[in-house]
Amino acid sequence: MTRDLSDTDVSRLLRLAGPRPAAPADVSDRVHDAVRAHWRAKLVTRRRRRWITGASLATAAALLSALVWVRQHPETPKLPATAAVVERVVGGGLRGEPGLLGVGSGVPTGAWLETSATGRAALRLPSGVSLRLDAGTRVQILSSTSAWLERGGVYVDSGEAAAAAPVQISTREGQVREVGTQFQVRAGNDSVQVRVREGLVILVGGGGRHEAPAGSRLDIAAGRVRRGETPSHGPEWFWVEQTAPEYTLEGQPLDAFLQWAARETGRHIRFRDEMSHRSTTSARLHGSTRGLTPSEALEAVLPASGLTARLEGDTLWIAVDAAR
Known about the structure:
Number of domains: 3
CATH class of the largest domain: Mainly Beta
CATH topology of the largest domain: Jelly Rolls
Strand content: 25-35%
Number of helices: 6
Helix content: 25-40%
Oligomer: single chain
Shape: globular
Order of helices and strands: HHEEEEEEEEEEEEEEEEEHHEHHEE
């Protein structure tokens, strides 16, 4: 039969056994070195874990900050705004960015456009203004209401759109600003010409501010401005007709067609009598004038509508054809 030893019994036995013999010195040193090496390894591991944890937390915090910044400051690529749309191309074509442009192509803000020696083009600005380029023209579209003319000729027909968004054409000799009008600007090697068909333009250049009403012409060279007169129809305006946007004839009233043709040709429409006038307000047109200039369209449409036309100066007199 056995019994459990108490703490007093264990102490008495240890005193009877006496002290244990000391371990040899070499064994003690090896154990000490092994324990110290193990302790150092543990210490290094702990430090490394703390460093990795800290670095991971710092990285996570940086990523979180970046994500929050991106959400608060979204950066989307800024594309240049469309300043105009190509409405018509004639002859040798229109070169822009990145290459040849066709009908319907958008023209971004800041784009350079160039026509060949046989090419012409018409652009439509967002406001509805028609901007046309003659052959051999190089121009930069600065915005939807302004352009820089380096060489060649441009024509502006603002109609009713000028009140909301007047157009400015800049040249080396000054800036031409419109006040609701039809005009053209031509830049040569050492001079600039402004011709006004309708309305009023303001030239800022040549040492001052110069107004040019309909039927006037300004020639600017070497900082000097000379005034003159110009017709509203003639050889200097023929190229404008060639770039006129095509008119949809089918189903249109005859008087609406005549108003369009008069504006495009620079002529004034008058009627010989009231009966001739009434005939244009009631008639509807059928067919197409595709490929014809406004002057050619007049020559085709009037006889087919039972009308005759006689040109006297800049006025086109219209009458009912008595022979029909």
